[in-house]
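Next comes this protein:
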Amino acid sequence: MLDVHRLAVLRAVVETGSIQAAATNLGYTPSAISQHIAALQRETGTLLMQRHGRGLRPTEAGRLLAGHAGEIQTQIARAETALTDLRAGKTSRLTVRYFATAGAVLIPPVIAKFSRLFPEIRLELRLGKGLTGEAADAEIMVLNDTVHVPAGLRSVHLLDDPFLAILPPGHTLAGEKEIELGRLRGEPWVDNEWPSSICRQTILDACGAAGFNPSFVVEAHDYATAAAFVSAGLGVTLVPRLALSTMPATSFACLPVTRPTPVRSIFVVVKEAIEDHPPLSAFLDLLRETATSHAHAAD
């Protein structure tokens, strides 16, 4: 059986690329670090680190074990937290997974109210795609007809979030009250969900329905970065209405899109077995209330 402590030492060496730096971070001597790495190599029968110039470079096996060491340390930290909660009398927790826009807009007001109603419940928020990731009691996510909700889970619709056109300042269409999607046919486009996602596919499907494929000249991973590129005049993009409040003040024009209007549907997926438990039930009620208020504010 691999020694967990030695795995943690290996991870420190891999991340710093230096025995001296790992020793400084962990409060050990360089000799002790070297002994731990040597012992771990004997346990595994595999070379884990090799010399590279003046430093060290992990072998493929070293990178593999260091990655697992990180996961093990995370699980140990969660176990220690759970034990601390148990000793303090906090025996319950609610784990919620979310995506970035929902985390910034929908969840904060829910947490404020939930914490007052259930101060004894530890609320854990995890960023991720949901369904296929770490188990959670509730998962806020974008769904469409291509996503299969596994047995034992139920999806609850929260709101439909339409996409808006983001245009550079001074664009010839910037003064319009709304814009037909087809009028952006010949424009350079800024991608904002790379690699592909349900939201990106929603945009591509809408453009296809309008008779064109967008010509992406810039790849970005989030809406704020994409909007900054648009403000610099590099192209146009589409952004969900809910995401606008998460973006820094930047100079661009924002117009409703028609014919068609791309829309992403936001759901919360919950475990059916515990859906009626008071903490989760209250969380869902507060989440629906917040989502409804955002939907009405947009009308």
